[in-house]
Amino acid sequence: MKFWICTTCGTQYMASDEPLEICSICSEERQYILPSGQHWITLEELIASNKYENKWEEKEQGIFAITTTPSFALGQTAYLIQTPSGNILWDCIAYLDAKTIKQIRQLGGIKAIALSHPHYYSTQVEWADTFDCPIFIHQDDQKWVQRKSQRIQFWSGETLSLVEECTMVRLGGHFRGGSVLHLQSGDQGKGVLFTGDIVQVTPGEDWVSFMYSYPNMIPLPAGKVKKIAEMLKDIPFTRIYGAFNRKITHEANRVVQKSAMRYIAALDESLTESR
């Protein structure tokens, strides 16, 4: 019996002798099956290949970005966030080896794992078992969990306080339970937001965007984007750390608001008609 991992999205499934024919995460409209077909691997095979390692970057005091190189699956970034109440792992990556485990333990371990949405669940249960900690996922995304575990706690409502400094906020959009994480003490007390791609930092790192599906280029309705911007308007944050090690370093809340306005203008044609 093996815990198979989809090589396209990095999601790990319940143990079985043979992998499924298709990945449930990749086969719906927000993801994709590659033209070459469905492919699977295990964490043990990833480690044994001696091909991968996790790179660490301290973004600011107490915030570490963890990214697998060469890129595997979606290539997202996880963040280890140090707080006086314990460390939070925001989002997850599939690759977990002895070197990564040692480094995290040296930094104080993990008190809790918090997830933005199903594309980044990856090997979350492996991480939780290794560091003996709970996983927090919004209950609206419960059906997308492919590897069950008693460590997973499904929360409800619009906000969840993980520790005094960290609060999860459900924004929806990309997924119904799509969530972001607010670190009140980040950027010297001015506030930091970790967004996954619920709010996607663009390559120029001066705008953000909002999509139902990024690879398939399916937009969100204007009303939903307006609601997301309104929900974030009164939350203090000057920086955003996004899914692919991208960041907004100044006036991040203002960037979200102006980006939402531009997005809505594009959908109602007022942006393109003015060009």
From TrEMBL:
* Name under which the protein is recorded: Metallo-beta-lactamase domain-containing protein
CDD domains noted in UniProt:
YmaE-like_MBL-fold
Outline the extent of the Metallo-beta-lactamase domain: 75-244
Name the source organism: Thermoflavimicrobium daqui
